[in-house]
Amino acid sequence: MTxxxxxxDKLNIFSLKGLQMKTFHITWLTFFFCFFAWFGMxxxxxxxxxxxxxxxxxxxxIQIASVSATIIARLLIxxxxxxxGPKLIYTWLLVLCAIPVLLIGTSQSYTSFLLFRLxxxxxxxxxxxxxxxxxxxxxxGIKGTANATAGGFGNxxxxxxxxxxxLIASGFTALGFCSAADSWRFAMIFPGVMLLLCAFxxxxxxxxxxxxxxxxxxxEGIKSSRNTFMxxxxxxxxxxxxxxxxxxxxxxxxxxxxxxxxxxDSFGATIAVAGMVAGIFGWINVFARPLGGIVADKIGKxxxxxxxxxxxxxxxxxxxFGIIWFAKSGSIGMCIFMMFLFGLSLKMANGATxxxxxxxxxxxVGSVAGIVGAGGNIxxxxxxxxxxxxxxxxxxxxxxxGLTVQKDLxxxxxxxxxxxxxxxGVGLAVFIFRTVMxxxxxxxxxxxxxxxx
Length: 453
Description:
Blueprint: H1 18-38, H2 45-51, H3 56-84, H4 86-103, H5 110-120, H6 126-137, H7 143-174, H8 183-187, H9 189-205, H10 214-219, H11 228-233, H12 236-267, H13 271-283, H14 285-328, H15 332-356, H16 365-390, E1 392-400, E2 403-411, H17 413-439, H18 444-451
Antiparallel strand pairs: 1-2
Helix pairs in contact: 1-6, 1-7, 1-9, 3-4, 3-5, 3-6, 3-16, 4-5, 4-6, 4-9, 6-7, 6-16, 7-13, 7-14, 7-15, 12-13, 12-15, 12-16, 12-17, 14-15, 14-17, 16-17
């Protein structure tokens, strides 16, 4: 590959021409399998829960562990990417995280399963690298679209995991490799191998920036050595976006983790059906998150930073109302429809948030992305804890083969309702602060000067 001098000013997703587009496609594909590995256990939790005899509290702790490690990882990765570049950091992240993904199937107890799930959560930091790499490869007017499209395509890995992991597990059983009870152990081998393959592709076929790798730019004195984390942390707008991202991406992670169990326990759906239904939520990312970035870029050209922030506030308000209605749905059909509705606004809000991130401070894109991204996981961790506390045991009648049977289940209706009201509050807060945020210089001038666009 021959590096070019400037970021690309248009995004053609059907093109592999040039360093920027090759990097774009490798980045989102790598991110896709990171999310696939991260949430690979979610649709198989019912099997693992029964085999390892996990209690309600233990399941809650495991869900919290799956997102908590990502918080520190995203903060650290943001600073490391600013300093060492995305290629090196992504490669090492993929190799190291493949280890717990491959080994979680050896778990024989709650403690070992919890620790592996905690370690797998580190792979969620891949999002920060993806957003940094697309930000640096594309010009200011297209950054929101590029970030949201790469993020949306990659986030779809969570939906793909819900859809395909039960099928992969069933496939291992059908081929005689294992029993149905052990199928989850063998199924996790697939995402672990894919992470190693992605590590090779990323290291072999990408560069850190259009100008070349950071190690070469550092030698030439082009790359700044300033403490980018402190630059990002001192800007209050970083923290407003962090709270907003907790209210959209934090909810996305929650739904990815809890939706399969919610549909099996609330409506008596099978693991395969629940995974397929929950997978709809993940696949919305393919078009909804890019749509959020595209709309934000178009609004930004006319109404600037204030317009983008107003869009984010409106999307959060729609999300909040949708979640409340979802929780109150009495049928699986209405539940699926409402999940699609609030999922659409939620994922557009994800894209709108990261259309703002590159313009907080162009010298600290990685660190801003890391802090805001960590906010998503802090939100997910707090929500998971709330679900653990608010969940209640219940006995419900289900019809199977013409017979009425009673099953113990975990009811998350109250937790989803409370979550909806919390999101409404965050949406109102962003709406109130949007004008204050816009009054501070957005960084567009510095970006234009630094990129030559």
